[in-house]
């Protein structure tokens, strides 16, 4: 069922009213390429929010504890840690430069005080440990306070070092580096529900790793044809099922999704389920293949549904029905007549992501002009909101936006021709429990909360 | 923001994208280039169908000047499964000085083959409506039994990978010596039997490769795009072809160009110079190297050529009859399953279907030749370069994938 193009009702059920909370990032008009945010991910508890950028850096924000003395802070996200995850590399064998852009970040479930996340660029996945240090040992015997070694002949007494508090220091250290397993560009990583393994997917292959083992991985999906000239589709996204550790899905550039069960065979080239919606012949165009390519696939938290994003729509699939999606929501159908121009300026190749809310009752995805769309699955209402500096007053409510596809433009409507296609929201994330969303608009990270929060 | 690109501009844009992706940071992006190749294929199909329709239009004009009994020929052509004939056609005289009349029957033969392909295309469209998603392999397979290169069918759903999955294209040529691919005009190869003269050496090479499945993508498409040398003979032959086209192409005046708005699918006919003019503007255009018969295209009035309808009937070849006869008029023997691998669709066609496989060679070199030459031609004005690239790209589709995949 198609959603309306920008209704006036807020989405998320219970008449949520989204308000501006914070914005991170520089205000400059000239955006450095390296500062463009390329991935956003909440941790499993939602208290940490990680972003990766094109410069290979990871910035982690932590939510402040609710402070009675500062009621207005309302759980703000502040910088917790920043580190350089990946550096540009050069593959000498193929004379290829490997971009340092962080393609995906995935948090590991928390086990202990330290936090772990996986970050990946096109070729290498790294496991990072983020740990806090707020104590320091003092009174060493063999070295003095500066760290210089003491002259052993001068040591006449023995003492026990004591721990003294220090300013909180957050350290990020690479604990594992999973390299040299992918010939093509990695587009997805997904941690398994067993908390021991994870998958990494590139254009043609999916590998299974153990978090402790870096010198080998197991290839479970390989769609590379014997003759590359026969190539017709590539893998665009992959994810493990949230509860069943043997189930994974991967989407293709042809708009199909395959569900694989690792119990059935070691090599999952043969799918267990095949999800495809028949193409509507009347909407056939020169760009049909491009706009049907799935850019993101996400399981619902329940594990019963999955959501796919293609260029113009998001579709919700029931895992028990392969023939067609149970829901189809139009994100920006008004672009269908502009596909030619979007092809010329390369926007048609933009890969939008999508996300579920904690209860799976709403879904969100980005669009152009710094617009993003929310669809409420229970009330069938949808809304278009904008991430902009103009609407950045603290706790200011976001006003629903409308795009005028043609004809007479009403007041407050934005016409399609005036959309800014350089301002695209590709990456969004929804807090796993609460109604807090993080929206990446080029080099800025916007955080919105619902008023009731 | 509406853009009414014609197929040629789209092809130019796509080629520019592919070319620039080779220098982009991070290496060639397989996914993006694959999608661009789909657009290229779609645009090429439109481009070819436009020319086809234009020829039909010209043929219509010619036939209006002919005695009425020639109308009979249209019926003969319209019958699906009508075998193409090659037996009475002498060896194709390649080269500029060839006899126009000697080339005519060959040209007509080629266009007859194109018509067969189109008949199958119509059948395929019928079939497509019954089976919602028979894209790609299925569609190309429809063309296979008739030997038509899938890339040259007007079926928009053909996938590049499946475009050339017909084993018979390669079958009779496994023994042929490999000829180096020669971009641009090249010395003409010696005349070969009509059925085989238009073979693309690259197709032979590809077919001979033991590891390559017979239906590999570039083979049939390159089969339809011989090296530059035969192109001069074949393209004028194509243009001059008196060939009845299905009426659904509509009416296209030879002095007009049909432009398809790719976004809204509005077809407009634009008063324009001859389609062929922009081709002749290119210094490398092999067509312009042609002798007298060639310029018949360049003139807006359309060409005058002799027409031997009687000969057409006699020329029906039994070999092809056997092959095409196997094709039931109403149905296409393939599984229109989108996800099936194309190997499943390689039909058991007779090797003689390769006669029909080599349809139109418009321009000589494929993409690999194009790309190698591109640095030199980059100094040319962009429109010309784009046109040059576009024209050469029309020749071969499968080579694009080869060039894209640098791994």
From TrEMBL, chain A:
GO biological process: regulation of chromosome segregation
Keyword annotations from UniProtKB, A to Z: Repeat, WD repeat
A molecular-function term among this protein's GO annotations: enzyme-substrate adaptor activity
Any one Gene Ontology cellular component term annotated for this protein: protein phosphatase type 2A complex
Domain of life: Eukaryota
InterPro entries: PP2A_PR55 (IPR000009), PP2A_PR55_CS (IPR018067), WD40/YVTN_repeat-like_dom_sf (IPR015943), WD40_repeat_dom_sf (IPR036322), WD40_rpt (IPR001680)
Repeat found in the keyword field: yes
Matching Gene3D superfamilies: YVTN repeat-like/Quinoprotein amine dehydrogenase
Family statement drawn from the similarity comment of this UniProt entry: Belongs to the phosphatase 2A regulatory subunit B family.
PANTHER family membership: PROTEIN PHOSPHATASE PP2A REGULATORY SUBUNIT B (PTHR11871)
Protein's recorded name: Serine/threonine-protein phosphatase 2A 55 kDa regulatory subunit B
Taxonomic classification: Eukaryota, Metazoa, Chordata, Craniata, Vertebrata
Gene, per the UniProt record: PPP2R2D
């Amino acid at each position: 069922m198609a959603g309306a193009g920008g209704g006036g009702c807020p989405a998320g059920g219970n008449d949520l009213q989204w308000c501006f909370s914070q914005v991170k990032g520089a205000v400059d008009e000239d955006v450095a390429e390296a500062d463009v945010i390329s991935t956003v991910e909440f941790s499993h508890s939602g208290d940490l929010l990680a972003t990766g950028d094109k410069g290979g850096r990871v910035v982690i924000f932590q939510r402040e504890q609710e402070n009675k003395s500062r009621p207005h802070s309302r759980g703000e996200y502040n910088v917790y840690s920043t580190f350089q995850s990946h550096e540009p590399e050069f593959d000498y064998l193929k004379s290829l430069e490997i971009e340092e852009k962080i393609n995906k970040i995935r948090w590991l479930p928390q086990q202990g005080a330290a936090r772990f996340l996986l970050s990946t660029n096109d070729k290498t996945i790294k496991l990072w440990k983020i740990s806090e240090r707020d104590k320091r040992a003092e009174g060493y015997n063999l070295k003095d306070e500066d760290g210089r070694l003491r002259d052993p002949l001068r040591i006449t007494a023995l003492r026990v070092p004591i721990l003294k508090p220090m300013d909180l220091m957050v350290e990020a250290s690479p604990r594992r580096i999973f390299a040299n397993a992918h010939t093509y560009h990695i587009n997805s990583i997904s941690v398994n529900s067993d908390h021991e393994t994870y998958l990494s997917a590139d254009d043609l292959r999916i590998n299974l790793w153990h978090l402790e083992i870096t010198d080998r991985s197991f290839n479970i999906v390989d769609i590379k044809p014997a003759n590359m000239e026969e190539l017709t589709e590539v893998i665009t996204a992959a994810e493990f099922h949230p509860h069943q550790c043997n189930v994974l899905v991967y989407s293709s550039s042809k708009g199909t999704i395959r569900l694989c069960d690792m119990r059935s065979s070691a090599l999952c080239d043969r799918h267990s389920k095949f999800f495809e919606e028949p193409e509507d012949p009347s909407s056939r165009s020169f760009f049909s293949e491009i706009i049907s390519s799935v850019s993101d696939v996400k399981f619902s938290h329940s594990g019963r549904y999955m959501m796919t994003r293609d260029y113009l729509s998001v579709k919700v699939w029931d895992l028990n029905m392969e023939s067609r999606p149970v829901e189809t929501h139009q994100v920006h159908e008004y672009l269908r007549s502009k596909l030619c121009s979007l092809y010329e300026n390369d926007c048609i190749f933009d890969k939008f992501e999508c996300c579920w809310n904690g209860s799976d009752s709403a879904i969100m995805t980005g669009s152009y002009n710094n617009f993003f769309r929310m669809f409420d699955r229970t009330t069938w209402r949808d809304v278009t909101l904008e991430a902009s500096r103009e609407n950045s007053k603290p706790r200011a409510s976001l006003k629903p936006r409308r795009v005028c596809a043609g004809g007479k433009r009403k007041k407050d409507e934005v016409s399609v021709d005036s959309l800014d296609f350089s301002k695209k929201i590709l990456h969004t994330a929804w807090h796993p429990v609460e109604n807090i969303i993080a929206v990446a608009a080029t080099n800025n990270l916007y955080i919105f909360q619902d008023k009731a929060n | 923001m509406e853009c009414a690109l014609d197929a040629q501009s789209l092809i130019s844009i796509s080629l520019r994208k592919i070319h620039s992706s080779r220098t982009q940071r991070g290496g060639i992006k397989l996914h993006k280039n694959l999608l661009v190749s789909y657009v290229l294929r779609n645009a090429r199909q439109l481009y070819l169908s436009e020319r086809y329709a234009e020829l039909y239009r010209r043929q219509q004009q010619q036939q209006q000047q002919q005695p009425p009994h020639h109308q009979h020929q249209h019926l003969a052509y319209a019958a699906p499964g009508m075998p193409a004939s090659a037996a009475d056609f002498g060896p194709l005289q390649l080269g500029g000085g060839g006899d126009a009349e000697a080339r005519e029957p060959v040209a007509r033969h080629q266009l007859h083959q194109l018509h067969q392909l189109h008949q199958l295309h119509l059948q395929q469209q019928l079939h497509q409506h019954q089976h919602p998603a028979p894209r790609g392999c299925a569609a190309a397979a429809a063309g296979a039994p008739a030997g038509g290169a899938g890339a040259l069918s007007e079926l928009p759903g053909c996938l590049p990978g499946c475009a050339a999955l017909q084993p018979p294209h390669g079958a009779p040529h496994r023994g042929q010596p490999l000829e180096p691919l020669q971009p641009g005009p090249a010395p003409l190869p010696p005349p070969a039997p009509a059925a085989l003269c238009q073979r693309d050496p690259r197709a032979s090479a590809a077919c001979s490769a033991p590891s390559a499945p017979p239906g590999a993508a570039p083979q049939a498409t390159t089969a339809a795009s011989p090296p530059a040398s035969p192109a001069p003979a074949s393209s004028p032959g194509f243009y001059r072809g008196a060939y009845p086209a299905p009426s659904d192409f509509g009416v296209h005046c030879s002095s007009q160009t049909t432009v398809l708005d790719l976004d809204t699918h509005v077809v407009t006919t634009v008063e324009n110079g001859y389609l062929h003019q922009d081709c002749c503007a290119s210094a490398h255009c092999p067509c312009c190297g042609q002798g007298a018969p060639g310029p018949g295209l360049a003139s807006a009035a359309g060409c005058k050529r002799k027409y031997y309808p009687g000969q057409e009937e006699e020329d029906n070849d039994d070999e092809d009859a056997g092959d095409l006869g196997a094709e039931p008029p109403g149905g296409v023997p393939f599984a229109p399953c989108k996800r099936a691998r194309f190997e499943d669709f390689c039909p058991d066609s007779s090797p003689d279907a390769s006669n029909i496989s080599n349809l139109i060679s418009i321009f000589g070199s494929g993409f690999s030749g194009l790309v190698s030459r591109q640095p030199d031609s980059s100094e040319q004005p962009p429109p010309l370069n784009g046109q040059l690239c576009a024209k050469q790209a029309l020749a071969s589709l499968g080579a694009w994938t080869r060039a894209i995949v640098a791994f």
